[in-house]
Write a structure and sequence with these properties.
- The protein is α/β, with parallel strands linked by helices.
- The protein has a single domain, classed as Rossmann fold.
- A 5-stranded parallel sheet has the order 2-3-1-4-5, sandwiched between helices.
- Helix 4 crosses helix 6.
- The two termini are 25 Å apart.
Length: 202
């Protein structure tokens, strides 16, 4: 197993929840979302996040994704993984999962806390982030991996990069809408008992 830190720097709804489950199967200590406590600025988030790094092996969700440059400087020798999904599927998932609710963290990341009505802004920021990450790590394949969990990639791609043995169990997939709809129809007598919103691969 890789002995350094592993930062997953894809935005939410690119498989982050599934990644967390997978890393825990590998017995890694995983740190997820850092609470959005005031003052919520990039600088304060960096300090709070940096203080957590010694306590964990791997990191995913916000604010880790937006701090990849600073984390690379502060923790040299780390590995970085960009989780991603097709653009339209990503914004559709974000709107279903987060739509109608505004948060300070999303305001900081995207400029608007609620994706509904701001889909174009969110999508532009998503593309901008992914392009910037790819450019930043362009000549460092030993430190950087693109991981398309929603494109069918799993243990076979991730494990060699983080120097981990490939588990016998299938790669976990969290929050799949198809599973949710199946059980809603089963329990509801063939009809959905509640909207399919907020259920997708996370």
């Amino acid at each position: 197993m890789f002995q350094g830190k592993i930062f997953f720097i894809g935005f939410p709804k690119t498989g982050t929840t599934s990644v967390k489950k997978a890393l825990r199967q590998l017995k890694l200590r995983v740190c997820g979302l850092v609470p959005a406590e005031p003052p919520l600025t990039r600088e304060h988030l960096l300090e709070r996040a940096s203080a957590l790094v010694p306590q964990y092996d791997a990191f995913q969700n916000c604010p880790w994704a937006m701090l990849y440059r600073e984390l690379d400087e502060r923790f040299p020798g780390s590995k970085f993984v960009l989780t991603y999904r097709e653009d339209q599927r990503w914004i559709d998932s974000v709107a279903r999962h987060f739509g109608g609710e505004s948060t300070a963290m999303r305001t900081l990341v995207f400029g608007h806390g609620d994706p509904l009505g701001n889909e174009a802004i969110y999508l532009s920021r998503y593309r901008e982030h992914n392009d910037a990450v790819r450019e930043y790590f362009r000549d460092r394949p030993q430190d950087f991996l693109e991981f398309g969990l929603t494109q069918g990639e799993g243990w076979e791609r991730l494990c060699p990069f983080i120097e981990a043995p490939i588990p016998a169990k299938p790669f976990p997939h969290a929050n799949r809408r198809v599973v949710q709809r199946f059980f809603e129809k089963l329990l509801g007598g063939g009809r959905e008992t509640r909207p399919a919103a907020r259920r997708d691969v996370a």
